[in-house]
Amino acid sequence: MSKRTSPRKSNTPLDFLVFFQRVGLIFWVLTSQLSLRRRCTTFISFIPSFYLSIALLLMFTAD
Fold first, then answer.
1. Domain that holds residue 53
2. Average pLDDT of 7-32?
3. What angle do CA 26, 45, 31 make, to 5 degrees?
C-alpha cells in the first residue's frame, strides 16, 4: 500500500515541524479570536479547526 519501504520511518522531523507549525497557527488564531469575539463564536470556529488538526495528524501518521 505504501510507496515507502519503511512506513514507521516515513515521518521526517521536517514533516512534524510543519505539522506543529500549522497546529500552532490554528491555536494562535483561536486565542486571538478568544480575545476579540464572544466565547460562542470562538467555540463554533474551534470545531472545524479542531477537525482540521486531526485531519493533518492523520495525513502524517496514517501513511
1. 14-61
2. 74
3. 50
For the chain, the 3-state helix, strand and coil shares in percent, each to the nearest 5, are: 80, 0, 20
| Digit-coded pLDDT (tens) for 32-50 | 766 665 555 656 667 777 7
* Total domains in the fold of the chain: 1
Whether residue 34 is contained in a domain is answered as yes
Q: CA-based diameter of the chain, in Å?
A: 49
Dist. CA 52–CA 27, nearest whole Å: 11
Predicted pLDDT of residue 34: 64
Residue 6 has pLDDT above 50, yes or no: no
Burial of 12 (0-12, 13-18, 19+ CB in 10 A): exposed
